[in-house]
What we know:
The chain is an alpha/beta fold.
Amino acid sequence: xxxxxxRLRRLRKTDSLRRIVRETRLSRDDLVxxxxxxxxEGVEREVPSMPGVFQRSVDRLVEEARAIADLGIPAxxxxxxxxxxxxxxxxxxxxxxxxxxxxxxxxxxxPGLALVADVCFCEYTDHGHCGVLAGGEVxxxxxLANLALQAVSFAEAGADVLAxxxxxxxxVGAIRAALDRAGCEDRAILSYAxxxxxxxxxxxxxxxxxxxxxxxxxxxxxxxxxxxxxxxxVRLDIEExxxxxxxxxxxxxxxxxxxxxxxxxxxxxxxSVSGExxxxxxxxxxxxxxxxxxxDEILLSIKRAGADFILTYFAREVxxxx
Length: 322
Ligand code: PBG
């Protein structure tokens, strides 16, 4: 018995045919743009390892956010570069802090944009670790109390979504309880639930001036070798009240995104991090790859793996291209 050749190429013949059978698409609705806010006025400083990404003072940030909203991107996530750093990172929970000022300005001037605030301490501590130190290590429970202060302060300044990224145990529960106590029960939590100790964060630490002064983050961020453990992290964060869970980085952890997507029914975000962006930009600048094509292929793979939306430094250029 002989069968006719199965001709899958029939539906690949033309662009129109390819379009009607396309399974996954990138849309503006999939994108969250990360933004870095710094003190001063009229400041717009490009990050050397991330061409097209800038540290901006609040006035310039507002202009950029307006452009982003006009492009149809629904949300931004803010990272702050404070005036001063100390051992606790106390500038992060001051009502006059850099992120609080940015949130108030954006809330007023770009009202339709969803505002996500990264909740962590590495940008605010003089040692660059993600919490309070005790005996050379980040003290988990002492850090939780400070995370709660920071999250409430960001919420009061206008954040719609609080995004704890420090990988402290119990961070989601502590922040949820504090938000509810402060009358902010309407604010959501996007937990960096499965965040790996990754070499892909290199350029971000330049952008956010947040490299640890000693050691590394392997004592709190996840081991890149572990995928089952990511499911435990996500499960606990959901139990503690996370509204959205995130996997980070994205490209080297597509299997984790897929497993989280298949195991849980809440929204799943993926963070395509600074190193993923820098690799594409660096290779494209040398003419070694076609930058926009590789960019779209990577972002599509993250959606195909199961992410509902993507935090990406490409947000603006992708929105411009579709
Ligand atoms: C911590 C934080 C980091 C990133 C987002 N939030 C850095 C880290 O854990 O060292 C990395 C994002 C990126 O690399 O693009 N506040």
